[in-house]
Amino acid sequence: MIKILMVDDDKDVLEINRKYFEENGCSVKICSHSQEAIDLAKKFKPDCILLDVMMPDMDGLEVCKQIRSFSNAPILFLSGKISENDKVAGFEAGADDYIEKPYSLKEVYLRIKVHIRRNSSVKRTMPKMYIDISPFLINLEEHKITYEDTEILLSNKEYDIFLYLAQNAGSEITFEEIGKKIWGSYDEGNRRIVMVNVSRLRKKIEDQTGVDNLIETVWSKGYKLVKPKGIRYGR
Predict the structure, then answer these.
(1) Of 113, 107, 121, 208, whose CA–CA distance to 160 is shortest?
(2) Which of 47, 93, 154, 195 would bridge 158 by S-S if both were Cys, CB 3.0 to 4.6 A apart?
(3) What is the Cα–Cα distance from 51 to 73, expressed in whole angstroms?
(4) Cα–Cα distance for residue pair 113/66, rounded to 1 Å
(5) Residue 77's beta-bridge partner residues?
(6) pLDDT tens per residue, range 35-78
(7) DSSP states along 15-45
(8) What is the per-residue pLDDT across 126-163, written as a single tens digit (0 to 9) for each?
(9) Which residues contact 120 (CB under 8 A, 6 or more apart)?
């Protein structure tokens, strides 16, 4: 059963959405206050979080940042703020998806299942394997990255980008290749979203490990993960 946490200051919208998802077999918690959302995310441990940007006490971007400090659950913004800058701000805060209002509940549900299925399929199908780029270790079964035995807390998209770069360590990966691999499609308007996510990934790596030179920028083209000595794939 999929566990969904929905956060919106419009209680009527919450009730309509809850009814739809519960009718589709989901376990749903709803709330209309930001701090309550953060507390529920800790206690309920949802598989996915639907979050509005415009909240009265603390905006959704800040809520997203705080939840990201302890949870890797996919976070999908549902918002009427639809400019490129709004979407970029959402991804910078740690979101995995940004859906414009008004939206189709059927589409939202399909996106939820895609995000959750992607994560669970990795855990279910991967043998006990890792990529060792010492002092970093990517555990493919548990879908996490550690640095000297301490886990680096990343969003799903950040993990996917790190893994893709690590799988191609030492090679130049273009913005287009990253966009198509991580989001499934790409046009030049998506370059900024790729850049924002890589920038956020770099910052988290630096903040949590002190390493600031692992991912190099290939000017006007893309990125390259500096290939450490002794990179190993193992079981």
Answers:
(1) 121
(2) 154
(3) 12
(4) 24
(5) 51, 98
(6) 999 999 999 999 999 999 999 889 999 999 999 888 888 999 99
(7) HHHHHHHHHTT-EEEEESSHHHHHHHHHHH-
(8) 445 788 888 889 988 788 899 988 899 998 899 999 99
(9) none
